[in-house]
Amino acid sequence: MAYKSLCTFLTSDTDIVAQLDSAASLAARFDAHLEVCCLGIDSTQSVGFYAGAPAIIYQDALDSAQASAEALAQITKTHLHGRSIRWGVDTAVLTLGGINSFVGLKARFSDLVILPRPYGESRGPQDEIATEAALFDGDSPVLIVPEPGVDLPEFKKIVLAWNQSDEALHAARAALPLLKNADLVNVVIIDPPTHGIERSDPGGLLTQMLARHGVRVEVSVIARTLPRISDILRRHAMDQAADLLVIGAYSHSRLRQAILGGTTRNLLEETHLPVFMAR
């Protein structure tokens, strides 16, 4: 397996050139096709207008979203022109409620989606929704680049979080092209259950599977020394001098206010390390 179809979504002009550079560098590294989806977001809600509001109000909002999408597409075409990669540009005008279906469809037919961290001063609800849509509606792995534009490392030292869950296993399988290319993959297990199926050999079956793919792998079993799992994972990745963290993405609720679940959200809010997620 190799990543041959990459996709990224632009929801605003914030860090657009940096995001394109990060995505393009990965496309060159994998010899993959990069699709850039430029989204014009109509954030107005019809319930916010009085009954019988003039149609021009709605049309103005749509026109503004269309202009935004076209402006993002023009910047993309100008910036990627002449690059020695295969790429294409698509535009769409969406409401916040329509992001899921569009992003989910595009992500479903992509090997990997590259996105910026969805949290921060310059980010809005559309970024969070797009990330969740790629993972849950598109069932695609997502690489979160916390600092777009910075030269991405070769991902030679990877930390893989393991807790025997389906999500963690799916993440490990989806990340295999990266794991196989790494110098070392550190499988980290936090407080494994004493009566679990892997109690005598935590992570043993996973490491066996990875080793058969040629992955150079080691296991770290560590205690839960901090209240939040996200803080433990982040600190362990720093201690290992890792340049990528692979995790299973969780969502205890599909409600927007509980998007992505606690551990995943905490990681994305605070990490300065690229994070590879799948579910």
Write structural notes for this entry.
With 279 residues, the protein is of the alpha/beta class. It contains nine helices and ten strands. Strands 3-2-1-4-5-10-9-6-7-8 form a ten-stranded mixed beta sheet, sandwiched between helices. Helix 7 (204-212) links the parallel strand 7 and strand 8. Helix 8 (229-239) packs across helix 9. The radius of gyration is 20 Å and the shape is globular. The two termini are 18 Å apart. The relative contact order is 0.14.
List keywords for this structure.
22% strand; ten-stranded mixed sheet; globular; alpha/beta; 9 helices; 279 residues
Roughly what percent helix? 25-40%
In sequence order, what are the helices and strands, one letter per element? EHEHEHEHEEHHEHEHEHE
Question: For the largest beta sheet, what order do the strands appear in spatially?
Answer: 3-2-1-4-5-10-9-6-7-8
**Structural category:** alpha/beta
Q: Please give the radius of gyration in angstroms.
A: 20 Å
Instruction: State which percent range the strand residues make up.
Output: 15-25%
Counting DSSP E segments of at least 2 residues, the number of strands comes to 10
The shape, in one word, is globular
Global mean pLDDT: 89
- Poorly predicted ranges: 253-258
Biggest sheet record: 10 strands, mixed
